[in-house]
Amino acid sequence: MRRVSRGELIVLPLKTTSQIALGTVKEGYKFRNDDDARKRHVISVDWQRTDVPRTAVKQDLLHSLGATQTVCQITRNDGAWRLRRVMETGEDPGARVEAVEAVEAEDADATDTTGSTFDLERVGRDQIQAFVAEEFAGHDLERLVAAVLSAEGFFTQEAPRGADGGIDIFAGRGSLGFESPRLIVQVKSSPAPVDAGVVRELHGVLSTHGADQALLVAWGGVNRAARQELRNQFFRVRVWDAEDLLNAVFRNYEQLSEELRADLPLKRIWSLVEE
Q1: How far apart are CA 198 and CA 168, in angstroms?
Q2: Which of 150, 172, 251, 252 is the most buried (most CB within 10 A)?
Q3: Which domain-ending residue is among 78, 99, 134?
């Protein structure tokens, strides 16, 4: 494997948060005589973004990031340029046609991960996530969230469009929804992370609606400031990002209506665990 040089882009998919970190190389490879063998091979990186949601990256590029190889070079679909744009702007602009044609002309068999395998579970989740983002955009995402909460035992009512005061769904236990916990739910379908102001506003209207807790469904997750705000509202406000919503869909899929399952057709598969 070639050595990296100063200024090169480094991309690290984070398994703990399902987000993506991007930065540039400050210093090339060094060997460090550390007692921990995992810390001996070092590259110094200036991490410029550590909370880019996977929803900000298009499906073809996510597929390249799904390799199980520890290290690989992204060459397909204009990946290097696009990832640098993600680092700079937070959004994936898609591949430039001329760049893709140039790579195909140079090597029609070029791949990012020759000889490697893919994390099938991650690739599958990314495909489902991309499908939901396209087919359940805007108010349809509220419909999906309401269906999941209903499957989990809540009585739900969607707020009238355009006059909800920032609240999209009311949910409560019991046949009429009067029993605790009583929730107010706000749904943000944007692929961009929401900021701390959204969390503060949602917490501020809890008492106005007589709710016990609030649920913020932020498809693109939350930024660093919002995460700090959430630590102060641990017992009052919770967040579901795209990964959390998918987990809720998976565990309740059989309880969803036939109509919704037709709109979101899924099937369970088994795969051998790779050591």
Answers
A1: 14
A2: 172
A3: 134
